[in-house]
Amino acid sequence: MKTRSHWTALFWTALYFILVLSPLIILLAGPKYSGRPALLDLSISMAFIGLAIMALQFVNSARLKFIYKPFGADIIYHFHRQIGIAAFFMVFAHPILLFILDQRYLRLLNIIDAPWRARFGVFSLLLLIGVVWLAEFRQKLKIPYAFWKLWHGILATFMIGSALVHIFQAGNYTDLPWKQVLWIGYSILFLLTLSFTRIIYPLKLMANPYIVQNIKPERGEVWTVQLKPAYGNMMDFSPGQFVWFTAWKTPFSDTEHPFSLSSSAVRKDFLEMSIKNVGPFTSKIKSLKSGDKVFIDGPYGSFNIGHYHQTKNFVFIPGGIGITPIMSMLRSMADWGDQRPVKLFYCNQTWDAVTFREEIQELSKRLNLEVIYIIERPPEGWKGESGFLNASILKKYLPAEWAINDTQIFLCGPTPMMNAVEKALQVIGFEESAVHSERYAFV
Q: What does the alpha-carbon distance between residue 301 and residue 319 come to, in Å, rounded to a whole number?
């Protein structure tokens, strides 16, 4: 399965680069105009590649499961952000290079007197600046995710539309039918993706709602939401995956939030998410009532043990609410009767906040499981590990042969903790490829 996933990832990566570079290839393959400055060709090339990337941004953020599966959602969203910044500089280089080539191009910035092709170009650039600036500074500006996501999509849509109009009106590099076919194709892909993500997929989610069965309080200000599908069969998922969850509104509202599934993948009578109170949305979870209708989009994520049926040992390292996907793994393994060795390093600030600690004790009786608690502020008389998880603690409990004997490590928690633990694991001899983590920083 891993080999097939690698080939799938390679296929999508190759196709992406082909689509990105196609405008440049067609530009270079076009008629050669004598006397045309090389700087002009460079300027147009940067713009074409940048715009192709921007158009494909709608595809890699559309949550197409067949694309997400081989990479994982966090990698796709991280790539979406980084490649978007790269495309910004490519597109912005287009007018800068024109101004360097000939200062008379500066007159096109006067949108009152400039031709319409220049107006659409300037408008597209202004929208691009707005899209990137809001994406980079959203958290510092404390803009709510749902509000930002809505306007991010609207501004990006107008930006791409304006840029395509600019290209067709400029005409110098789209004057032949076979060149126009490329940009018409990008326009169609853009419109189809937009229609799918904004209309078709929300309608599909609305046709398959879930019903709240129960709300259960847990330690550490966590509530477990138990769900059943209103119609049809229960969702199939791999232990460790997550879903996008919408409550109190419809899937058209852009108010969804990502939560890991915490229930066993073996159970088909209910689905559970365990959600910690960390903000305005999560603080309202406890007010959900039995019978309420909610919507779930998923499952997503390559952070799961479904790919590792032949693995000899597992190491689970959750921090705080990062225990939720790990609980799905532990519960599933117990239901499977899986007796492979598991080391669980569970990091928390206080002992009282250790979510699921009683159930973990019960699971230890059904699994080949050793639990090591690391408490940052331990209670008086605490005899376990304290402070922060480090290389010394990991080395104390992990046999040296595990580093070279097919061990898979699943790490989930606050980003600073995950960064520190990843380095500690490398220090004691584990390869980077053996460590799996999933970050939700895109929210």
A: 19
Backbone phi, psi, residue 411, to 5°? -125, 125
The distance in angstroms from the start CA to the end CA of the chain is 30
Using DSSP bridges, classify how beta strands 222-229 and 210-218 pair: parallel, antiparallel or unpaired: antiparallel
pLDDT per residue as tens digits for the range 198-208: 888 889 999 99
**pLDDT tens column, 247-295:** 999 888 878 888 999 999 998 889 999 999 988 888 899 999 999 999 9
CA 224-229-232 angle, 5° bins: 155
Query: Do residues 222 and 260 touch, judged by C-beta distance below 8 A?
Result: no
Instruction: Classify residue 128 by burial, with Cβ atoms within 10 Å: 0-12, 13-18, 19+.
Output: buried
Q: Which residue has the tokens 């940052």?
A: 376
Residue range 51-81, pLDDT digits in tens: 888 888 888 777 777 777 777 777 787 788 8
Contact 356, 345 (CB under 8 A): no
Considering only residues 198 and 438, tell me which one the structure prediction assigns the higher pLDDT: 198
The C-alpha R_g of the chain, in whole angstroms, comes to 26
Token readout for 204 is 């599909």
- CB-count burial class (<10 Å; 0-12, 13-18, 19+) for 168: middle
Q: Is the dihedral of CA 76, 82, 88, 90 positive or negative?
A: negative
State whether residue 370 is helix, strand or coil: strand
